[in-house]
Amino acid sequence: MSPKWAMAIDLDRCTGCGACVVACVAENNIPVVGEAEVEKGRLMQWLRVARYWDGEYPEAQAIYLPVPCMQCERAPCETVCPVYATYHNEDGLNAMVYNRCVGTRYCANNCPYSVRVFNWYDHKWEKPLDEQLSPDLTTRSRGVMEKCTFCIQRIRRAKETAAGEMREIRDGEVVPACVQTCPPGALLFGDLSDPHSGITRKLKDPRRFRLMEHLGTEPRVAYLKRQKGAGR
Amino acid sequence: MLDRRQFLKLGGATAFATLFGGCDKVQKKLIPFVIPPENYVLGEALWYASVCGQCPAGCGVVVRMSEGRAKKIEGNPLHPVNRGKLCARGQAALQALYHPERLSRPMKLSGARGSGTYAPISWEEALSLLMAPLKKVKAEAPASLLMLTDPIRGHAGLVAGRFMKAFGSKHRVAWDPFGADAMLSANAAVHGVRDLPEHDLANARYLLSFSGDFLETGISPVHYAGAYGRMRGDRETIRGKFVHFGPRLSMTAAAADLFLPCAPGTEGIVALGIAHVMVRDRLTAASSAAGRLADDLAAYSPEEVEKKTGVHAHDVVAVAEEFVRNQPGVAIPGTGAATGPDGAFHCAAVALLNVLAGNVGKPGGVSFPNRTPAFAKYGAEASLLAPSPESGYAGVREAIGKMRGGAFRMAILSGATNPAFTLPPSLGFGEALSKVPFVVAFASFLDETTSRADLVLPVPTALEAWGDDIAPVGHSGAVTLCQPVVEPFHDTRSMPDVLIAAAGELGGGLAKALPWRSFKDCLDQAYGGPGGGMETALQRGGIFGESSSTQSPGRTASGVLPKATGRPIEGDPKTFPLELHLFPSVTLYDGRGANLPWLQEMPDPITTAVWRNWVEVNPKTAAGLGLADGDGVTVTSPSGKITAHVAFNPGIAPDVAAMPLGQGHTRYGKTANGRGENPFALLPAGETYALQATRVALSKTKLPARLVRFANPEGQWKISNLM
């Protein structure tokens, strides 16, 4: 059975520290664009930690919401790509074929979560910063759309290792860079098709909700609401 | 004579040269496939353990190596401090390793002193330039050598300490702008232990934070963030509740269930108000401390506390009752409280809450794990290996005075704390340093401090060097070992290596004090070396799982109520209406991260600002001053004046202006320079060091740049869905 990869984000644990963002940048060869480009809304980070204000002083509150690609089961981005550059792979992920992308940006336009980023330029890594680039994935060229992949290179590596050892992938063996580094352990990743996996159990929590559920996109990323009070 | 085999070889080589000699696109680097060195197996990643050097927390890391280059850093899952996790700054250490502006060769001053223009030289020339004045100073006036570093832990500290002692100079000064002075003296007064406690958040049911910054930049942010996560969600039936008092809604405060703003510099008073209720209503088991304190606490009734702090009396009572009902609970002070003029008072008042709640030495409370057994064999020298985590301000101040008086003939600088940037400019560090005839700096980058040296010696980063470390908290008695996880990328030598070599050349007592061939040799002897168990330790990243001992608190509560000095902060409230609240940046820490593009481009958790400095004010205060979000302002204190952009923080006390530290560099390379101005410049150069030490006034100014923020691109969702 092919796995159903999913992520759970426990807002009760998330502190908004941004470690996931930098871990993602480091893992996925994401370029730095500079102040002027950020102002134009061209930040290339695949994962953002949105911050919401609620209430007024002295009752003001800040709430953090990490937003990676939702890896929707019924993804609005996939249906509008004229060249099938974004497609649903065998694991149910919304994968990108960079070589097919012609840069229409229809997918980004149709994504309700605004998680897709577009290469407006050929981004440069000043030498020797390019020594850090991960050999597991390419850098993307101008005119190509990109987004969070659930660290598909890590999934592939785990599959190969497991296949080499003639076994199934173990629960917790695959973790995207953001999940791996999250200091308070707010992020959890795993296979929903395994009824005993940590994530399957975690998502039975009644606090569970998904972003913009009413749109019917069926995201593979689920959130757990913040709790109140001392008990459960 | 040629034999047949050699002839064929030569013939082949000549043919090859003839065929391809004219080709100028010859591949320069071939990776041999026959017996590849283990670092060059294509496609195969290897992980090596080391320590993260980005802040003093001392987290263990593992580094992914592929084809001889470091590709990714992750937390070491075996390490007791961070348990496999890492913060943004730790992740970005790779950019320091491969930074385009990293010093790759020794540099000799080529322009005027202080100009920061250098010419590259060889190590041979650099060492002779170092040794000539060192020999002269040793022969003529050994006490006129100054060594100014950041706090050095592990055997590197032993090397530096022994070197200075045997050299004959007692002027070894360490500087850390976020040193825990206040917490140390508070713990000495209340618990009788002059050390940092371990706050066991993971097992607590109730967490009281007083301007705590333990999730972002405190003493060990990854350690405490992990414990915080476990406190919230790892127990089946218990979810720890978190209440935060402080003048600003910080990233840590945002995680709290209840954020109760208090006036700046009143955290200790709130704590004593809670203590008052606990003693008055006999909420705690009748301890001797409670009995002794009853009279002194009488002045801190909830009503009195409300008047002084702005926290409602009923909130003080409710929190006190909840705190007692939900034991074990723990109270934790943070940088915002500790770095005020009355920091020690605030920290002691908070520590007193832990004593009154009876949670000292208990799970879910505070304890004092012992760091010294790891280095017990060094006896009195153990403190060189595990120095007290204090700021060292008094020592730096004294050293600056002496520099100015011409007492030093030579200075050795090292470390990332960059005193020329992080000390109040009115102390005149830079100008005083120019009075020292010869300054040598061990550094990876030119910054405001190292660019004033006569000789700059490039050092390896934490990922390229041998070393050992013991973390300030969360160490469980474990020593972390570091190894060069990558081949040194540049022609660098570590400071201990250079000092050991210099001691050998100076001979005599110095050579005897530092009897090793190299720093690696020193570590080999300390940890058993190859064949003596050191490989296993290096593989795991340290010596873990040792039974850890705890220091027993000397006197559980001295029973003396901490006294506030009542020292006023600088500035007349009429001219300077707002209190300045300075806090370490989540990304840039004390400014050392400012040259790393990943950190500059990570949106700040509260303002979502990137690449630039800002000043946070309450929207209502700003409206009263005629300021809009994003406006340029001049921030004026009695000691200095800088410009910044206004960023609204709806959760900041109305009489406070808050600024993150870390931006405002002028000599730290093109990523860091020109990103706003340095808020350290607003601080007075007082006798004691305080970050919350002055009042400021804001006035609208036109600034050329704009503050760029990463808004929520998807628009506003209903926040009620997220709670």
Can you characterise this structure?
The complex is a heterodimer of chains A (232) and B (723). Chain A is α+β, with helices and mostly antiparallel strands. Chain A has one domain (5-224): 2-Layer Sandwich (Alpha-Beta Plaits). In chain A, 20% of the residues lie in helices and 18% in strands. The two termini of chain A are 36 Å apart. Chain B is α/β, with parallel strands linked by helices and 723 residues long. Chain B is 30% helix and 17% strand. In chain B, the strands form seven sheets. A seven-stranded mixed sheet of chain B has the order 5-4-16-15-14-6-7, sandwiched between helices. Chain B has a six-stranded mixed sheet with strand order 22-24-23-26-20-25. In chain B, strand 2 and strand 3 (69-75) form a beta hairpin. Chain B is globular and about 95 Å long. At the A-B interface, helix 1, helix 2, strand 2, strand 3 and helix 6 of A face strand 3, helix 2, helix 3, helix 7 and helix 8 of B.
Concise account of the structure shown:
The complex is a heterodimer of chains A (232) and B (723). Chain A has 232 residues and is α+β, with helices and mostly antiparallel strands.
Dominant shape of chain B: globular
Please give the alpha-carbon distance between the first and last residues of chain A. 36 Å
Number of helical regions of chain B: 24
What's the gyration radius of chain B in Å? 27 Å
Structural class of chain A: alpha+beta
Write the CATH architecture name of the largest domain in chain B. 3-Layer(aba) Sandwich
Note poorly predicted spans of chain B.
Answer: 16-25
Q: What is the number of strand segments of chain B?
A: 27
Main interface pair? A-B, 75 and 91 residues
Number of domains of chain B: 4
For the biggest sheet of chain A, the summary is: 4 strands, mixed
Helix content of chain B: 25-40%
The helix fraction of chain A, in percent, is 10-25%
Task: Provide the domain count of chain A.
Answer: 1
For the residues shown, what is the average pLDDT of chain B?
87
**What string gives the helices and strands of chain A in order?**
EHHEEHEEHEEHHEHEE
- For CATH, the homologous superfamily of the largest domain in chain B is named as Dimethylsulfoxide Reductase, domain 2
* Rg over alpha carbons of chain A: 18 Å
End-to-end C-alpha gap of chain B? 87 Å
Low-confidence spans of chain A: none
